[in-house]
Amino acid sequence: MKTRALTIMATREQDQSLVADFADKLGITDDAIPALESTSGNKKSRGYIVPAFGWHPWFSHQIFVDGKGVIPSKLNHYRMAISPSPENDDDFIATLPDPRPLSHLLDQTRSYLQKYPYAIVGELGLDRAFRIPGNELADNRYERDPALTPGGREGRRLSPYRVDMHHQRKILKAQLNIAGELQRAVSVHGVAAHGVVFETLEETWRGHERRSLSKRERKRRATLDAAHQEEEFSEADEQSSNLGGPKPFPPRICLHSYSGPVDTLRQYLHPSVPAIIFFSFSLLVNFSSTSSKAVAAIQAVPDDKILAESDLHAAGEKMDGLLEDIVRKICQIKGWTLEEGVKQLRSNWWHYIFGKKLGNEDGAE
């Protein structure tokens, strides 16, 4: 593997402890940061894993909200958490795991974040398109890959059921609140729900928006030279990246493999948004079919807010190839040289993970 640092994200119950195991062995530590910060190539770091802990929306129906002290039965929970309600399909509900209380999930996530100071929260989000797998195999010849973590689709046919959007939003907001409490970045999944994702995020920072400039202040700012403006904007980003104490919203948010329209993207870039918003792109998701929407989004994202990712479930040569291809694609669309693009993307990743701009000693900014 050529990649120097990568993020491993949990998605469901079965892989939270697996991510923690990797973090114990290979997680980024304070003594690894100088080596990661350097581009000289002669410094080696012990750790190169950024762990991420969270519940993906595909598995959010397996969580019940227990804030009022009421523990629903398995049948009642899934009838409320799934859409359309499987109220006459008890056989399907019987194939699902016993639901876990949200409070346990939040306690576990908080514990992991406190143990691993460079961990982030993810993968979480909203998905309108996903259908919950049933119990019947799509192909009787299917043989399970023992290398895969249990709990995934594993060759099963998709049922007609989806996770109720109201339920998804509750699970998402609770995890966003934890990230805000401990001031960690988050990675957000959004499919066929870009407007609702924005609305949900917006609810977490309501009342904490950045102050709008008055007409006089805007006029004064317009008279500043470009260098001074850039310095002011950089300071504003730094303030949003390090908000000080606990907040109900995360300080930095990545909309991963962003597939939404440019209009929604611009909502996130409004000056009043108090969080720093990044947009990542992958070859597997954003360029698997028509790419016109992805090209328009990449062109619209500010240079210092774009990230590259593999969106692959395994590390190795294939992942390296996917990362190289998407970096080259972004550079082509942005009009960057490969060297310029690598430096910019590296600087952006550093800001997203660590909440601060990368120093200039290696020419990264």
UniProtKB/TrEMBL annotation:
GO molecular function, one term: hydrolase activity, acting on ester bonds
Protein name: Cut9 interacting protein Scn1
Region called Disordered, residue ranges: 208-246
Pfam family, one: TatD_DNase
Organism of provenance: Letharia lupina
PANTHER family reported in the protein's UniProt record: CUT9-INTERACTING PROTEIN SCN1
